[in-house]
Amino acid sequence: MMKIPLRIIGQDPVVVPPIPKASAEIAWLAYGFRPFFLVGSLSAVLLMAVWLAILAGLGEARPGLSPIQWHAHEMLFGFGGAVVAGFLLTAVPSWTNLPTPKGLPLGALAALWLVGRLGSWFGGGAGEALDLLFLPVLGWSLAGPLWKAGKVQNLVFLPVLAALWAANLAFWNGHEATSLTLAIYGLLLLIALVGGRVIPFFTQRALGNQPIRHPLLEGLALAGLPVCAALESFPGIAPHWKLGVLAATAAFHLGRLCLWGSPRLLRVPLLWVLYLAYFFLPLGLVLRGLAWMGVGSLSAATHALTVGCIALMCLGMMARVALGHTGRELKPARATVLAFVLMGWAALCRSVVPFFAPQVYQHALWCSGLLWCVSFALFAIVYFPVLTAPRVDGKPG
Q1: d(CA 297, CA 254)
Q2: Around Cβ 248, how many Cβ atoms within 10 Å?
Q3: How far apart are CA 104 and CA 102, in angstroms?
Q4: On the CB side of 31, how many CA atoms lie within 13 Å of its CA?
Q5: How far is residue 73 from each of residues 67, 277, 380, measured CA to CA in Å?
Q6: Are 379 and 387 contacting, i.e. CB atoms less than 8 angstroms apart?
Q7: What is the pLDDT of residue 9?
Q8: I need a surface site. Which of 143, 234, 241, 246 has the fewest CB within 10 A?
Q9: Is residue 122 a contact partner of residue 97, using CB atoms and an 8 Å limit?
Q10: What are the residues whose beta carbons fall under 8 Å from the beta carbon of 202, sequence distance 6 or more?
């Protein structure tokens, strides 16, 4: 880099390197995780705050949707869609050695996500169409490098994104309940697919041990989720069949998780948060199976999957990916670890507590919502400078 001498009157010349203004100004568009983890964490706080305000009678959801429908849609397709986009836009270059959108194209994709949120809120045919644009454009931006790399195992993410888009289309065509069920399972399948790659890898890197991956168990765990989605989406399926399949799939995932892990992971916050989040997947499946049999609350069981597994996994993955891809040491700040703990309690308050003690449902709901807001607010505060500044090691990205 050229150095420019700077003379100050009465002093010797001082050599000052020029500040790379351009790179600093667009640092937040240098990689897919940067804008999407930022808007994902901020939207998590804002969407939950709006939901709590609606519950308190301080506002209303958009016309044509019940407050619960709007809340569920935005948490899955809004918040969830942002984090999925940030992760895949960052992971695909690592898997394929080919780039995904950066700079202005990445900014345009983030703007499209934001326009989709506005469309979802204000409604109407145009608003719904804008919301439906994001996932196809995201899939198109990923399809090129995935196809060119020629690795079949990576192409699986494209049909999963297509299934999420189909679920969103079903939502706007009046099939809200089925749509939300399919969206939850679509996100769970993404977590199971990605988790099967990165959680054992992260464990090996951090602890030095070799996680066990049993091919049959891995296959059964992954195949079980679409079967569960089908059983829960179609009417006329006997409750005991639902319980049996959900419990079996839960056992596969729990066994998978146990084979990956080690007691030593409890010393590593960036590991135990991922294991805790993944544990909520089998827990939520079992609770849903019991709820279909008339035991406990189906809503509480659902939130074991959405708050416990999906949201907590998003928080843990965002924390690790942002540190690693900005050249920082993989040691989270104390505030980040506190966010993990608070998010874990938020999941318990929204799922396990009301499932077994429905009489405290309202208290548990408010406690969970407030803990959620504090948790993601802590993440946003800690990671805003991480996501908007250039890498500390001077490398691109």
Answers
A1: 22
A2: 15
A3: 6
A4: 27
A5: 10, 21, 22
A6: no
A7: 35
A8: 234
A9: no
A10: 270, 271, 274, 320
The token duo for 370 is 């407030």
- What confidence tens digit (pLDDT) does each residue in 310-359 have? 999 999 999 999 999 999 999 999 999 999 999 999 999 999 999 999 99
Closest CA relative to residue 265, chosen from 254, 275, 251, 278: 275
**With contact defined as beta carbons under 8 Å apart, do 368 and 346 qualify?**
yes
Q: CB-side exposure of 313: number of CA atoms within 13 Å?
A: 28
Q: What is the pLDDT of residue 3?
A: 41
pLDDT of 17 = 40
- pLDDT (tens digit per residue) in 123-154: 888 899 999 999 999 999 999 999 998 878 88
Give 66: exposed, middle or buried? Use CB within 10 Å, 0-12, 13-18, 19+: exposed
Low-confidence stretches of the chain (pLDDT < 70) are: 1-25
Enumerate domains of the chain plus CATH numbers. 32-174 (no CATH), 197-391 (1.20.210.10)
Give the model's pLDDT for residue 26. Answer: 85
Residue with tokens 């899955």: 76
**Alpha-carbon separation of residue 162 from 14, 48, 156, 194, 375 (angstroms):** 58, 27, 10, 17, 31
pLDDT at 395: 85
Report the distance separating Cα 92 and Cα 33, nearest Å.
Answer: 11
Q: Is the dihedral of CA 107, 110, 114, 120 positive or negative?
A: positive
CA–CA gap between residue 317 and residue 88 (Å, rounded): 12
Residues in the chain: 397
Looking at residue 124, what is its pLDDT? 83
